[in-house]
Fold this sequence. Notes:
By secondary structure, the protein is of the alpha/beta class. It is built from 25 helices and 19 strands. The chain is globular and about 80 Å long.
Amino acid sequence: MPETHLNRLLGIDSPADLRQLPEGELPELAQxxxxxxxxxxxxxxxxxxxxxGVIELTLALHxxxxxxxxxxxxxxxxxxxxxxxxxxRRDAFPSLRQLDxxxxxxxxxxxxxxxxxxxxxxxxISAALGMALASREQGLQRDHIAVIGDGALTAGMAFxxxxxxxxxxxxxxxxLNDNEMSIxxxxxxxxxxxxxxLSGRMYASLREGSKKMLGGLPPVFEFARRTEEHIKxxxxxxxxxxxxxxxxxxxxxxxxxxxxxxxxRNLRQIRGPRLLHVVTRKGMGYAPAEEDPxxxxxxxxFDPRRGPEKTEPAxxxxxxSFTDVFGRWLCDMAQADPRLVAITPAMRxxxxxxxxAERFPERFHDxxxxxxxxxxxxxxxxxxxxxPVVAIYSTFLQRAYDQLIHDVALQNLPVxxxxxxxxxxxxxxxxxxxAFDLSFLACVPNLLLMTPSDEEECRRMLSTGFLHDGPAAxxxxxxxxxxxxxxxxxxxxxxxxxxxRRQGRGIALLVFxxxxxxxxxxAETLDATVLNMRFVKPLDEACVLEVAQDHDHIVTLEExxxxxxxxxxxxxxxxxxxxxxxxxxxxxxxxxxxxxxxxQVLAIQGIDRAGILATIRRFLESGAPTx
Length: 627
């Protein structure tokens, strides 16, 4: 957006500057901010629709509250771009989600205005509650605000936090950003009047006064309390929150800046747990995003005049991603086996399940952002003879680790985990990288664990895991592989069998999954043997021991943390041999990686083609293993 159109925004370098503006200029500033974000994200890519939907809310929060002294905690962080612009990071937006650039989420190390880092959902209420109780303990007077979406509120963690907050009576304001209208859109004149009345000091004083007056008359007090809740329940949908100990206000129009400012000012005068229900529209102000907010949730670079889907013609033939392979396999296997049911924790589109949901609606279960429930729900289905497939991102499976161990693996139930986004994920950075799944899954008994190196192998491994009479997991990366077109059959692979892809001498590369293409290229230079290991568990021990006898050096390669990863299993096996070969484990460092393209981060980690070759050469030239 041309700077000539940013007359007000260019003068805002902090919320303190914002609070110097006359209130009447805020709507014009909102339009400038919306245009700035639209054109900035169009140049860099990023999360668009959610951010366009919270422009007015973000302005109102920073206008009313004294941030950063008052703690403003954003859930997930998808909707934090306007917040970043207003807190001194406007000029950094050309680097959004790029190497060494501005994070796409809130990040404590990036700004004092980010009191809590985000990336995964449903954490904001817990974090803000902890801050509120810490302030109380230290005798500090400050406000604590958690902004959470209606989708994130489906997770049990959010309700656990609200249940605790209601018991502690902490000074906490939860702003429910309802952008899917899951509660009726009750934002007319009467609703605005009721919300402002209920948020005023008079109502709060009368309510507290009535409690004190009626406190000595338990039957009357109980009758009065129930009467109040039933009356409010007929007018507003907040009874559930009231039962959790929150004073509920709303719903209010999240795009009406004067109303938001007035209500937030009133709420700032009230103590205890409060919940403000704000109704917003994803993609607000940009018609294509309003019409299809899902398509505009996360976008690549695009022309705002035409939309992202029209900027570049699709290549021919269209290359399948691993996600596409899973979606096609899911439909084919469902057609072949009526026991198959599919489960996702709110990632239908991202996990490639749209076609399955349309063709087999009775066998498709989107459980919302509730990973723990998704896994135990699958266990219950498996107990009754069905064959559940849980489609989940690697980074989100971390949230259901106990359920995977206790409810699935311990009972040896036939649940297949289709683990997408394993390994590096590019611009989303450390919060979404699937860097640990091999490490935390390899130690779980009963679990069959597979790592495909190409699209055909991915399809066959999915069949292998589905037909296996026990828990199984297939972990595959974001995007596509080497372009191996999968067939249409549903044949499984022989369990625990690696394949020799190249015969060399002296050194053997044992590859687990996505880096096989790079390994084969390196092997041509070094004349090395290459094993496509396929299975992390059970490991093909016979094959490993065979190459160990014929080679002086063994190198393991995986797109996973080196600590506890697949290479560790090879180390344990060979350490028991009387004369083991020298070992080198290549994988992700013991650190949370940064953002950037997958190619950039692979190079930084030293596991792109050039990095693998250079590290192996140093290893061969040295007298001791490279760590």
